[in-house]
Amino acid sequence: MNSTTAPANDASNAPHSLDLWANGQKVAALGYEALMDRWTLSYDTHWVAMPEAFPLSPALPFEPPTNGYAAGAVKRFVENLLPEGRALDITATTFRVSKSNIYALISALGTETTGAFRFWRSDETPPPVAAKPPREVTRDELDKRIAERDEIPLALWDGKVRMSIAGVQDKMMVWLDRPLDDGGRLFLVEPPLASTHILKPDPARHATPHLVVNEHFCMSLARRMKLPVAEVSIYRSPRPVLVVRRFDRVVESSNGAAVPAVRRLHIIDACQASDLPESFKYERNLGSGEHVRDIREGVSFEVLFQCVEQTVNKAVTRMTL
Fold first, then answer.
1. What pLDDT score does 179 carry?
2. How many CB atoms lie within 10 A of CB 172?
3. What are the tens digits of pLDDT across the range 97-119?
């Protein structure tokens, strides 16, 4: 057993385990027993002792309950990091696992998730920062791939699944050296590099046309109103693509390096903050059928405002909501 990990309910002793890392520091061990669908978590004692340390979520504090963390709480935190829709289908097909196999999916996609954490095999240490992004995507190639995404999913590049962000829309995670309108270049990232931007083309379905323009307008309006939203722009390849600067990434000073380091910031979504499963992402968690449409157990304004009590600056958070 790793001497830096708390021995009680040690997740690293489980049949399957992954380590969680944040910006070069081991944070915790995640354990999994497949037959029982049992999830365990144990924080690294060195991490807990650091002044800048933070727990994964309010449901997974540093001090565990007497009987350990609820297996469901650990699973729900991990589940909410995974993509949805077609990207999830592609991942499951590529790795030949069930879409319900949360552990297998996070093992496959966990090196570049939303927020600060990376999931790594327990017998390995994440490699140091690479010299430069290994795979450039030219503008012509990007336009071609957007046009062909019905045949070749946008999440699949060079035979690898490169999509690990929650959500249903087609997305690409890229490292962008400078704004595209200023001659910037796009790169697909490999561990341990972190992406800096997300590209979102218009949906292939005609049911939601002009989504890029609509989202750009809404985000730009919110920004003009001084709301804390991500920076967005539209790039035309010539097809419109929404370019979203990741608010969970900070590009640090290069200090002469070929590629500046990208620091991952810890964020959680409303489901993680409320300890709810991914299926509760929408307020009508059972759908809009005649007999269930009035059931609203999912994330709602009421649930969001309950989360305010878990924040440091409650007044600012309440005003932002």
1. 84
2. 23
3. 999 999 999 998 888 888 889 99
Question: CA neighbours within 13 Å on the CB side: how many for 266?
Answer: 14
Give residue 8's pLDDT: 45
Q: What is the pLDDT of residue 149?
A: 83
State if pTM tops 0.70: yes
pLDDT in tens, 291-303: 888 898 999 989 8
Beta strands in 73-114 (DSSP E): none
- pLDDT range class, residue 275, cuts 50, 70, 90: very high
Radius of gyration of the chain (CA): 20
Reference 5, options 37, 23, 35, 27; nearest CA is 27
Judge whether 33 and 15 are in contact, CB under 8 Å. yes
Task: Count Cβ atoms within 10 A of the Cβ of residue 161 and give its class: 0-12 exposed, 13-18 middle, 19 or more buried.
Answer: buried
Distances (CA, A) of 162 to 135, 190, 200: 12, 9, 14
**DSSP run (H or E) holding 21:** strand 16-22
Q: Give phi and psi for 227, each to the nearest 5.
A: -85, 145
Taking only the tens place, the pLDDT of each residue in 8-65 is 457 767 789 999 999 889 999 999 999 889 999 999 999 999 999 999 999 999 998 8
Q: Convert 129-179 into a string of H (helix), E (strand) and C (coil).
A: CCCCCCEEECHHHHHHHHHCCCCCCCCEECCEECCCCCCCCCCEEEEECCC
Report CA-CA distances (Å) from 206 to 203, 216, 239.
Answer: 7, 18, 14
Residue located via tokens 């309440």? 318
* 9 neighbors 70 (Cβ within 8 angstroms): no
Q: How many whole angstroms separate alpha carbon 163 and alpha carbon 173?
A: 7
CA 307/CA 36 separation, integer angstroms: 31
